[in-house]
Amino acid sequence: MTADTADTAATAETGGAAGTDTATGTATAGAGATAGADGLLLPVPDEDGAPFWEYAARGELRVQACSACGRLRFPPRPCCPHCQSFDSEWRPMSGRGRIWSYVRPHPPLLPAYAAQAPYNVVLVELADAPHIRLAGNLVTSADAPLDSMDPARLRIGARVQVVFTETGGMAVPRWVPEKS
Fold first, then answer.
1. Residue 107 Cα distances to 34, 44, 75, 78, 121, angstroms
2. N or C: which end of the chain has fewer CB within 10 A?
């Protein structure tokens, strides 16, 4: 994968390993996953991804940017893939995006997810940074269950807005339909 195509990350509640690209499979803002008390997977933040989760706990969606060349990058990493600078900052994003892809996992692999099946996993292209895509779940509200969205409402290109929900002591980004 190139740096531009690797700019995909997942949130924790995707039905696959947290810290993975969902449709759920490759490295993200935290390496690995642990299960919360409810059995849902939680990210395990690493040094580079920890600020992402700290901002999420404050209800902010931020993306790492190179302080030297200004390019945004996700997943977070110590060195800019474009100019090789080690200087970075975290820029606020609007939290708006559009569904770039989605999947409805069948069959669920973990018991905690089976109880909420069928649910969705969406890949959202950020409005502020179209080369960055974040994975999560499309739900009706921040604290709604993973299966709360009618599957008929899943559409490529649908506009969405990030919300944060508390699960297992972490604030995890999810997505809701954008209000017109």
1. 21, 25, 28, 37, 13
2. C
